[in-house]
Design brief:
477 residues, alpha/beta, 8-stranded parallel β-sheet, two-stranded antiparallel sheet, globular, binds flavin mononucleotide
Length: 477
């Protein structure tokens, strides 16, 4: 496998690790990773904001099928951007039979993100995908491969099918991508994707990227490493302090006084046992310090995957106001990150930074009308008669519990992460009453690394760059 560097800038959805951040990191010689989550929505929102700088259109100009690129521009690009208060036009939702236009858009959006991340240097770029958000995976991944992505990193679920999927796409073969369906009476629910049909026979040569599985346990790592079909090229071992979603604790469900999941020794990964699997690995979650990198390497890791430090740097896609407010609170020593059991419709614990006027405030959450208009976290379920329905515990309660027959208790405390995270990425939907969708900020539990970087730079709470993060981690300051 191509050797990967010691620092991986972790994938951070939605669009916190967008092409700008990954490009800046890759230029330093470390691995920049774009988030593949909701790239299709980001792509059309950037176009509707006028595509300042022409980046999306420049990338689309290199897409192998010009007709598809032009159609996307014709459908979504607004010269000069949306008139004030006009809502973004949404895209169709994924289902077991995604509309052809949605397939095209998803392939093109994966292409755009990686093309821009790789532009202007010869460093390495990866794409991060969440196993839980499964329907877009083959399309976004293929687009990323068409743009020459070097590495694919997949977590939030067991990614055992990924090596076969990557191989098939690299060979331009048709793909059958099984979906996990609630209440399913059989296991044949699958999306089929024909790259050659979608790309209208355009000859596309792609090389096979490296595949890293993001894992939180020895069992999963050993299972994957021992399987002839599922064996990855390496692992990112992500512990409970990591930002974003976390694997739930292994034992019975227990919460501390603040209602957070309790992790104990069972949740610790046995690093010598992991190293004995013989695959390269990187450690993530509270490793974003120079000492963290040294400790990881002493434990046999190639290096570390870092999120939080990069999420707050100048090139990250987090909305500027949120970034500044987060840095100010961290610098002042008052920042609080909570691991929340309920927030994420996925059911995984999710880290939330307390920031005024965001969904960390229960009043902001209570004031939001439940609307499900993006649907990326909808789960398919089998209806009586065998057809599929789609539901999300953050959708309006009446539709979730009514015709869709799910339990009301499952809706409590859920946040529409689709709308919230797009707001965090600076593209909030406008609602009819003129209100904007409120954001939510996720960071890792360890903010000491950020404070340490600010101190090392001798800076106040001002933004720092991705290159400064890398220099700091490598001990170059
Ligand atoms: C803002 C943010 C968003 C994240 N989103 C994702 C994601 O979409 N997919 C993923 O695999 N990991 C995600 N992570 C985890 C990071 O990739 C990385 O593993 C983690 O942040 C490392 O721990 P640290 O925050 O202590 O540096 C996210 C982390 C942050 C801070």
């Amino acid at each position: 496998m191509t050797a990967l560097p010691p620092v991986i800038q972790g994938g951070m959805g939605v669009a916190v690790s967008d092409w700008r951040l990954a490009n800046a990191v890759a230029r330093t010689g470390q691995l920049g990773v774009v988030s593949g989550t909701a790239v299709e929505v980001m792509c059309v929102r950037r176009l509707q904001d006028g595509d300042p700088g022409g980046h999306v259109r420049r990338a689309l100009a290199s897409f192998p099928v010009p007709r598809i690129a032009q159609q996307i521009i014709d459908t979504y690009h607004l010269d000069g951007g949306r008139p004030h208060g006009v809502p973004y036009r949404n895209i169709p939702m994924f289902s077991v039979r995604p509309a052809r236009r949605l397939q095209e858009l998803s392939v093109a959006a994966g292409f755009v993100e990686v093309f821009l991340a790789k532009e202007g240097h010869d460093g390495q770029v990866g794409i991060n995908l969440l196993r839980k958000i499964e329907a877009p995976i083959p399309f976004v991944l293929h687009g990323a491969m068409l743009a020459g992505v070097d590495a694919v990193l997949v977590g939030a679920g067991n990614p055992h099918e990924l090596p076969a999927l990557i191989d098939a796409l690299a060979r331009d073969e048709d793909v059958t991508w099984a979906l996990r369906v609630q209440r399913a009476s059989h296991s044949d629910h699958a999306i089929t994707y024909s790259p050659s049909a979608l790309l209208e026979g355009t000859a596309t040569e792609v090389s096979r990227p490296v595949f890293l599985a993001i894992v939180a346990s020895n069992d999963l790592a050993a299972g994957l490493a021992g399987s002839p079909t599922a064996r990855p090229d390496g692992f990112v071992v992500e512990g409970p302090p990591a930002g974003g979603h976390n694997a739930p604790p292994r034992g019975p469900r227990r919460s501390d006084a603040r209602g957070q999941p309790i992790y104990d020794v069972q949740d610790e990964v046995d690093l010598p046992a992991l190293a004995a699997l013989g695959l390269p690995f990187w450690l993530a979650g509270r490793y974003g310090t120079p000492g963290g990198l040294r400790a990881a390497q002493e434990a046999g890791a190639v290096g570390v995957q870092v999120g939080t430090l990069f999420a707050l740097c100048e090139e990250s896609g987090m909305a500027d106001g949120l970034k500044r407010e987060s840095l100010r609170t961290i610098h002042a020593g008052g920042a609080e990150v909570r691991t929340d059991w309920r927030v994420s419709p996925t059911g995984f614990p999710f880290k939330v930074l307390s920031v005024p006027q965001t969904l960390s405030d229960p009043d902001v959450l209570a004031a939001r009308d439940r609307i499900c208009d993006l649907g990326m976290l909808r789960m398919p379920y089998e209806k009586e008669g065998g057809s599929l329905g789609y539901r999300c515990p953050a959708e309006p309660v009446a539709s979730y519990t009514g015709a869709k027959g799910a339990r009301e208790a499952n809706t409590h405390g859920r946040v529409c992460l689709c709308n919230a995270l797009l707001a965090t990425a600076g593209v909030p939907q406008s609602r009819a009453d003129g209100a904007l969708e409120p954001p939510i900020v996720t960071l890792g539990a360890d903010l000491g690394g950020v404070a340490g970087l600010l101190a090392a730079l001798g800076a106040g709470p001002e933004a720092y760059t991705a290159a400064e993060v890398v220099d700091h981690l490598l001990g170059h300051h």
